[in-house]
Amino acid sequence: MAHFNGRFIDRIVVLTGAGISAESGIPTFRDAAGLWEQHDPMDIATPGAFRRDPALVYRFYNARRANLAGVAPNSAHLALARLQQEFAGEVFLVTQNVDDLHERGGSRQVCHMHGQLGAMLCNSCQSTMQAPEAFDALSACPACGGVGSLRPDVVWFGEIPYFMDEIALQLGNCDLFIAIGTSGLVYPAAGFVQRARQRGATTVEVNIEPSEVTGLFDYQRQGPATVAVTALVAELLGQ
Ligand code: APR
Asked: Can you tell me the distance from the alpha carbon of 40 to that of 42, in angstroms, rounded to the nearest whole number?
């Protein structure tokens, strides 16, 4: 168990966004050099975009997979893995990120609500399987042999995120909700702070700058994730 600002903490929910992976060399979406500054998300990350120009979408996600292979988890990922291993209570980690840096940082439980870059989905047999570093419209589905039916297993705009029932359950039972490196612009994740507050949880935002929902948090820890998350975890572990 832990105490946080005088409150007894037994169950923690941690939400992460692109900001936690920024210092590993993965661009965020909406910062100055972010992915959505270089591409219109409506041309890349919607089912309609995939129908209109699958080659562009395949190229985009193949490039992200190649970039991911060249980076490593940072001390914020490592700190969260330590919290999960050493905290006597429960820690539920949900991420909007499609990278695997939490797992490579040692986290055994990671809920990928927006899917994973390392996975692909077949639109004809509905199988989900590990993705090679690159695939496209000529690639055959390893499960059904279908050609041109594979897509990145990433939740696109207009699609329903994964694991929403489990996430709602965890938010409904936590004492402490921590949001790290997310802009608070994309729902349903941006609404998690409200849900946790409604159930009486204490809420903390970690970000290099105020997000769109900063005012909804009880506490703000402003700074780069590698510094602010490491310090917060040390505090929760009483170190
Ligand atoms: N440390 C902490 N926070 C950081 C850092 C850092 N080093 N660098 C950037 N940030 C913060 C920014 O201030 C911003 O608030 O991370 C946030 C990144 O915001 P976005 O780029 O909007 O990313 P995110 O909130 O994860 O996007 C949500 O939108 O495009 C969709 O599906 C995609 O999961 C994504 C969702």
From this structure: 5
Q: Which token pair is 40?
A: 């219109």
| CB 153 near ligand 1, within 6 Å | no
- The residue to mutate among 29, 39, 111, 167, having the most atoms of ligand 1 within 8 angstroms of its beta carbon, is 29
Whole-angstrom distance, CA of residue 131 vs CA of residue 168: 29
**What pLDDT is attached to residue 18?**
98
Regarding pTM above 0.90, the answer is: yes
Ligand 1 centroid from CA 1, angstroms: 30
Per-residue model confidence as pLDDT tens digits over 108-134: 999 999 999 999 999 999 999 999 999
Tokens read off for 71: 């980076």
- Residue 152 in contact with ligand 1 by CB distance below 6 A: no
Cα dihedral: 44, 45, 51, 52 (round 10):
-30
- Contact (Cβ atoms closer than 8 angstroms) between residue 102 and residue 56: no
On the question of a cis peptide bond just before residue 188, with omega within 30 degrees of 0, the verdict is: yes
The residue whose CA is least distant from atom 23 of ligand 1 is 18
